[in-house]
Amino acid sequence: MNQQRLARVRQAMAEQGLEQILVTAPASVYYLTGLWVSPMERMWVLYITEKDCVLYANELFGVEEQEGAELVLHSDSDQPTAALAQRVLPGKLGVDKFWPSRFLIDLLEARSDVLPVHGSAPVDLVRMYKDKEEQQAMIHASQVNDRVMEQAIAALREGVTEQEIASLVENLYQKEGGNRGEGVIVSFGANGADPHHSPDQTVLRQGDSVVLDLFMPIRRYWCDMTRTVFFGQADEEQKRVYEVVRQANLAAEKVLRPGVPLCQVDQAARKIIEEAGYGPYFTHRLGHGCGLECHEPPDNSSVSQAIAQPGMVFSVEPGIYLPGRFGVRIEDLVLDEEAGTAELRDSQMSLDVGAVAKGFAVQRVTESLMESGYENFVISAGGNVQAQGAPPEKEGWSVGIEDPQQAGELIDTVMITSQAVVTSGGYERFYTVDGERYHHIIDPETLYPAQRMLSATVICDDGALADCLSTALFLMEPEEALEFARSQGARAILVTLDGQVLDTQEK
To answer: What total number of domains does the chain contain?
Structure first.
């Protein structure tokens, strides 16, 4: 028995005004006891009061008594509710939403002094907040999901059926430690307009949309992710619908933070889809909680009263479904940012610290040289210059800032002492496709190379900070960048897209 979780449930019971509850959902019983039983038609109940915790189980389940919980067994020939009827207290009895009516009716016939009330909340509320162990389990499950999704997409070929892809997915999950076979949504073409389509013998053709909604419990905790791809060439409306759904997904995740009502998260995504003219075709809520069950609290919908809090895990899955034509859905599981984690949603993604690593390294080298007794020096690291002191008989170090439009030409020269000068821009590291230049600094809003300015130079005392700021400013609108640089006590020199030079230090 997990005593910490039990204590939290008892606290929730008190807040709900419940002195006794029956926990019958297999996932909830497992959450508290660590025992997973699929009872089918047999009774499986955890009875909880302020002081008592009693597990009622059929002897066929092979359950042994554990510390912190009394065990009461019955056989197939017994009346399963008899012992429970003798134990429950008169008055209100919280009963969770999954207990079969045949057991509840038998109990009430034996105990007319008992008033059943909805009693799922105490456990549901506690389960919404995943502890560190649960978070790690779900991160692992999502990593498995990434790998399976990658292989499922790679297996798409003309002539393959939905059922063949679904069977492949289920086999891949089993190899990765999936607990049991569950439904997988694979939808080709017009079938994608049905959000809960069951895979059949539909054959994949050129130009079809493919909706892959992959979900499976891994070590009891669920992963759940949906991706939409197009086999062959997508037409213009397919591209437009996909982009609208992608923007809706990004809009929802942008507003998502602890303290925000989930109804506002739903509204942020729904607004994007409605403004694009597809409102009637977004036919479901934005998402649902996920954990020991694929669908569990909190509700992530336009009418949800839940507030996003640290430890919650739920889906964000906007979709557009055009009957008889195609559907698009993009689904991610999200965990609050307060946990201090970064989510890599693609197995081919990796973290690149290039935006800050050089500045940090140069700053550390500077500090090391100073500790060794060096008082006057300059370090040049290709776009990063850091100086200490000044050259002999000079006021400081002269550093030229290159013109991003004319190689070898300067837009300005700055004099520094014990400062760093760092420039970010897309004019040195780039490649060209069909006459279009693509550089390495990506705008997080568009996922394309940033197109707000040509270069951003920062001058300040700390090289690591200068490196961070130069990249950040490059992603902002020029006036916003100038204001932000001032707020950080740094000088910024910006070159706009039309070649204008802006400087926080007015001349």
So the answer is: 3
